[in-house]
Known about the structure:
Elements: E1 29-32, E2 38-40, E3 45-51, E4 62-69, E5 72-79, E6 83-84, E7 91-92, E8 97-100, E9 111-117, E10 127-128, H1 131-134, H2 141-150, H3 158-166
Antiparallel strand pairs: 1-9, 2-8, 3-4, 3-7, 4-5, 5-9, 6-8, 9-10
Residues 12, 26, 28, 30, 113, 173 line the site of zinc ion (ZN).
Amino acid sequence: xxxxxxxxxxxxxxxxxxxxxxxxxxxxxxxxxxxxxxxxxxxxxxxxxxxxxxxxxxxxxxxxxxxxxxxxxxxxxxxxxxxxxxxxxxxxxxxxxxxxxxxxxxxxxxxxxxxxxxxxxxxxxxxxxxxxxxxxxxxxxxxxxxxxxxxxxxxxxxxxxxxxxxxxxxxxx
Length: 173
Ligand SMILES: [Zn+2]
């Protein structure tokens, strides 16, 4: 696995609590970075969503990629992008430039919000610490492995994912 930004640093971690988020906690990890920073695919995967997939809070150039890691399925969203370079159904390789960072949607400044879920029905309970995907040591290993064990071994259709995502209209940062 690779970082979504080359040499990127998490500036607002997963799981912190606050009023910025409709769920009351941060469901992704933020990488503060100037608008226009290349955003890279963290692994080999398939693009399943491009555009305003998950409501306006994440901006107009969201990219969602389906990854299979250790035979388990994960869905990652790259949010607040200023541009996207991929199409639904496209296969991407680890390190491919899939979008540019930005400050679209509900933000306090330019950054990447990177969020990962274990099932296609994205809700308040299926997110995992994204650090698990690219740096197991710095995540809580126990929690990460437990979540990985519950990740479903199913692959939803693109339509199922996009309809599930469109039903969301959340605050974000
Ligand atoms: Zn965020």
